[in-house]
């Protein structure tokens, strides 16, 4: 798949998943907003009904008192009787949803007539129609008079109630009952807390199990809204578990968002893997092309030298014969090195490296490598120092691969040395925490911090500026990392630009 197609597919899919995710989030936000509005409306409706119930109870109490005062039992012993009927409706759990009381006063017929018909009312000169109109007018006047009396009584009741302190007007038990009943009637079955304040804002009561959690979203309601002297009081109600209630109402949408996010992450990982595989494939292609080009040079040189050896005149010149032999030997080593690089690359495609494990004295192995490498270091005017202080140097490892690891790290020190400064290469060993540590330190050009974390990746080569003569395939340190990992060890690099680089290897000791 071409790179342009991959990018186009990635953009389309990410845009689609992002749009779907945004739609889900937007839908949840709107749902939460709607649930909040419904909850607020239900609570306000419940509190308003609570206020109405309190006013109704207070009015009924004063009317009953006025009624009992107006009835003289001594003068009218058999004038009537009071019948009381109570009705209640229950829900599950014996919660009372509504209740009401019916009181009926039955009176005996009065001995005096409602309307006294006099001669003024019934005149011989008046017709029946006129007489009827006269009677209707009389009844109307009586009704207006009685209505005015009732208004006066109601006004007196309001004034009497307003003069009573708010602490004595409220029955806390009855108030709590009304709150619970009205909230249940509006579909709210949550734990609630409330406080009562007077008109000056001072708190005069709070519920026994009061909890300030959720008080920032409290609801206020005037208890006696039609009070004349502004002695009504205010209730402040809040729900500590409101957040959990809202979450439970929308939690069925959470799995859909989680699945969308998982799909989005899976798609991103898939596209990333495809991109990396494509990049790796391109790197391998470049590697093969470069390696093919590298193979041509030594093969051509060896072929030319072999043709020259067939010349009889060459036998008469020992100096020329030795020169051609040296060239063939050098080019053979070069071919062997290139073949080793190819084998290293093929090794990465295997799940596990075939290691020939045996007991190895690391101090002795490193000393042999140092002795062999001294000639190459001294060629560039450098020095190599070994400080092998490990008292327990024996590990179980593959001798050939560990030797290649040490050689590669030393060879990198030579490649990336400073041109204007003599190379100083130091190799150390020591024991710590039941492990054998190996450090290889140089005073070369160093590695920038942003490149340091990538140096163990396959085919990655640190930009070296004007060091155009340094050749490689980006496999050396990746090979080192893999071999150390296969030996259940660790390797890390410490470097500073223009100061030098230090590699530290930790291997488990043989038990």
Could you please describe the fold and organization of this structure?
Its EC number is 2.7.13.3. With 511 residues, this protein is an alpha+beta fold. 52% of the residues lie in helices and 17% in strands. The protein contains eleven helices and 13 strands. It has helices spanning 3-70, 128-162, 166-169, 172-185, 242-250, 254-309, 318-348, 362-379, 399-415, 449-452, 476-486; strands spanning 80-90, 96-107, 193-197, 203-206, 219-222, 234-238, 357-361, 383-388, 394-398, 424-432, 435-441, 490-496, 500-508. β10 (424-432) and β11 form a beta hairpin. It is rod-shaped and about 170 Å long. The model is unreliable at 72-79 and 110-117 (pLDDT under 50).
Contiguous helical run count? 11
| Biggest sheet: strand arrangement | 8-10-11-13-12
Q: Categorize the overall geometry.
A: rod-shaped
The termini sit apart by 51 Å
Give Rg in angstroms. 51 Å
Largest sheet: 5 strands, mixed
Say how many strands there are. Answer: 13
Residue-averaged pLDDT, rounded? 76
Supply the helix-strand structural class. alpha+beta
Low-confidence stretches: 72-79, 110-117
Order of helices and strands: HEEHHHEEEEHHHEHEEHEEHHEE
InterPro entries: BphY/WalK/GraS-like, HATPase_C_sf, HATPase_dom, His_kinase_dom, HisK_dim/P_dom, HisK_dim/P_sf, Sig_transdc_His_kin-like_C
Protein name: histidine kinase
Organism: Candidatus Avibacteroides avistercoris
Transmembrane segments: 6-28, 252-274
Brief descriptors of the model:
alpha+beta, four-stranded antiparallel beta sheet, 11 helices, 13 strands, rod-shaped
């Amino acid at each position: 798949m071409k790179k342009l197609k991959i990018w186009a597919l990635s953009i389309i899919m990410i845009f689609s998943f992002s749009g779907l995710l945004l739609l889900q989030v937007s839908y949840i936000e709107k749902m939460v907003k709607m649930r909040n509005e419904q909850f607020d409306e239900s609570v306000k409706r419940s509190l308003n009904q609570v206020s109405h119930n309190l006013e109704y109870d207070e009015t009924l109490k004063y009317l009953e008192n006025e009624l009992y005062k107006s009835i003289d039992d001594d003068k009218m012993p058999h004038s009537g009787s009071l019948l009381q009927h109570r009705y209640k409706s229950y829900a599950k759990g014996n919660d009372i949803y509504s209740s009401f009381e019916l009181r009926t006063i039955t009176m005996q017929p009065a001995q005096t007539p409602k309307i006294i018909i006099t001669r003024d009312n019934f005149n011989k000169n008046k017709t029946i129609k006129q007489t009827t109109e006269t009677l209707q007018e009389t009844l109307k006047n009586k009704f207006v008079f009685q209505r005015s009396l009732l208004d006066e009584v109601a006004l007196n009741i309001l004034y009497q109630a307003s003069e009573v302190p708010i602490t004595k007007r409220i029955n806390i038990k009855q108030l709590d009952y009304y709150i619970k009943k009205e909230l249940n009637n509006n579909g709210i079955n949550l734990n609630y807390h409330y406080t009562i304040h007077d008109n000056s804002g001072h708190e005069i009561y709070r519920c026994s199990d009061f909890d300030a959690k959720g008080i920032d979203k409290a609801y206020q309601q005037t208890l006696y809204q039609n009070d004349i002297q502004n002695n009504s009081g205010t209730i402040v109600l809040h729900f500590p578990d409101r957040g959990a209630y809202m979450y439970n109402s929308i939690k069925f949408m959470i799995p859909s968002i989680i699945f969308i996010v998982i799909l989005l992450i899976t798609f991103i990982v898939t596209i990333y893997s495809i991109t990396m595989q494509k990049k790796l494939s391109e790197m391998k292609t470049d590697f093969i092309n470069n390696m093919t080009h590298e193979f041509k040079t030594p093969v051509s040189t060896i072929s030319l030298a072999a043709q020259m050896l067939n010349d009889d005149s060459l036998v008469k010149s020992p100096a020329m014969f030795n020169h051609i032999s040296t060239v063939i030997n050098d080019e053979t080593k070069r071919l062997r090195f290139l073949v080793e690089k190819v084998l290293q690359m093929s090794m990465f495609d295997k799940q596990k490296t075939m290691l020939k494990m045996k007991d190895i004295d690391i101090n002795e192995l490193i000393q042999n490598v140092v002795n062999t490498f001294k000639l190459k270091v001294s060629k560039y005017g450098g020095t190599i120092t070994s400080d092998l202080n490990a008292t327990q140097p024996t590990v179980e490892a593959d001798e050939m691969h560990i030797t290649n690891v040490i050689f590669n790290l030393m060879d990198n020190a030579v490649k990336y040395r400073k041109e204007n400064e003599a190379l100083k290469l130091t190799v150390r060993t020591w024991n710590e925490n039941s492990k054998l540590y190996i450090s290889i330190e140089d005073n070369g050009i160093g590695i920038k911090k942003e490149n340091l974390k990538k140096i163990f990746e396959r085919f990655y080569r640190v930009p070296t500026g004007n060091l155009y003569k340094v050749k490689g395939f980006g496999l050396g340190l990746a090979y080192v990392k893999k071999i150390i990992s296969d030996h259940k060890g660790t390797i890390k690099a410490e470097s500073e630009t223009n100061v030098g680089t230090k590699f530290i290897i930790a291997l488990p000791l043989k038990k």
